[in-house]
């Protein structure tokens, strides 16, 4: 089923997650990679889709996955896209911790993997409206966007 979700929605969701995060994105090796390049210039949809997480190809970077570049979008298996997976839990065989670093996480799970809580986010949508969404709703929407070919 086609989706009405676009890259601009995904940027809005990640911005909302960042707003609730307790860490400091300015000290992150990847910065707001969904919004801008490391030089601060805006990133285009195509640059995002074809790019890698900044710093992820440097074996000394905290975003490296064994020194292997981490694509922004896993085109072969979109549901395994790194930014989506790392919001749910650790990636790279557990070497990269769940994001955002230090929380607030999009949801909490018990030992059996059941969601036990999810925060509410104020999301500024591309049309200028602001809606409240839970972390689970945001993750469902990101998953839908990825599953539908990550439309522009």
Total helices: the number is 4
Largest sheet descriptor: 2 strands, antiparallel
Number of strands: 4
Helix content: 25-40%
Uncertain stretches of 5 or more adjacent residues: none
Elements, N to C (H/E): HHHEEEEH
Strand order of the largest sheet: 1-2
Q: What's the overall geometry?
A: globular
Structural class: alpha+beta
Number of domains: 1
Overall pLDDT confidence:
83
How much strand? 5-15%
Radius of gyration (CA) equals: 15 Å
Distance between the termini: 16 Å
Secondary structure topology:
Layout: H1 7-20, H2 45-50, H3 82-88, E1 108-109, E2 115-117, E3 120-124, E4 130-134, H4 135-147
Helix pairs in contact: 1-4
Q: What keyword list fits this structure?
A:
alpha+beta; two-stranded antiparallel ribbon; 152 residues; single chain
Give your account of this protein's structure.
The mean pLDDT is 83. This protein has helices at 7-20, 45-50, 82-88, 135-147, and strands spanning 108-109, 115-117, 120-124, 130-134. The longest helix has 14 residues, at 7-20. Helix 1 (7-20) packs antiparallel against helix 4 (135-147). With 152 residues, the chain is an alpha+beta fold. The chain has four helices and four strands. Strand 1 and strand 2 (115-117) form a beta hairpin. The chain has one domain. The strands form two sheets. It has a two-stranded antiparallel sheet with strand order 1-2. A two-stranded antiparallel sheet has the order 3-4.
